[in-house]
């Protein structure tokens, strides 16, 4: 495994480890184990769709934040180095905000 591939995997792994349990709880699912980066994006999408059309402004905002996170995560799949880290940091900010607005 190259250093770039390992960094890509480790960075996504850290992000998924941080947010998987909270995202799964938002949609009343058990947290998946051994989740891939693509599987994590799918989890974020399921959480986003749970808030689409919500009657409360803060839940709609959470859905928007998750949508932004999906864009950054998807972009990060094809990037390396500093560009990938930047996209993952942006995704992390949106994920954190979305989770906090639902509490």
Give a written overview of the molecule.
This protein has 103 residues and is mainly alpha-helical. 79% of the residues lie in helices and 0% in strands. The protein has helices spanning 3-26, 37-51, 57-77, 81-101. Helix 1 runs parallel beside helix 4 (81-101). It is globular and about 40 Å long. The relative contact order is 0.16.
Task: Give the arrangement of secondary structure elements.
Layout: H1 3-26, H2 37-51, H3 57-77, H4 81-101
Helix pairs in contact: 1-2, 1-4, 2-3, 3-4
Give a quick precis of the structure:
It is built from four helices and no strands. The chain has helices at residues 3-26, 37-51, 57-77, 81-101.
Task: Label this structure with key terms.
mainly alpha, 103 residues, globular, 4 helices
- SSE run: HHHH
Strand content: under 5%
Largest sheet, in brief, is:
none
What structural category arises from helix and sheet content? mainly alpha
Low-pLDDT stretches are none
Q: Helical segment tally?
A: 4
Radius of gyration: 13 Å
Task: Give the CA-CA distance, first to last residue.
Answer: 40 Å
Outline: globular
**DSSP strand count:** 0
Mean of residue pLDDT values: 86
Helix content: over 70%
Oligomeric status of the shown chains? single chain
């Amino acid at each position: 495994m190259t250093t770039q591939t390992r960094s890509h995997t480790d960075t996504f792994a850290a992000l998924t480890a941080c947010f998987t349990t909270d995202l799964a709880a938002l949609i009343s699912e058990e947290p998946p184990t051994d989740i891939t980066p693509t599987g994590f994006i799918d989890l974020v999408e399921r959480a986003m769709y749970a808030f689409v059309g919500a009657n409360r402004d803060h839940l709609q905002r959470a859905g928007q934040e998750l949508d932004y996170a999906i864009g950054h995560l998807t972009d990060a799949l094809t990037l390396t180095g500093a560009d990938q880290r930047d996209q993952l940091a942006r995704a992390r900010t949106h994920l954190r905000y979305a989770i906090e607005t639902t509490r």
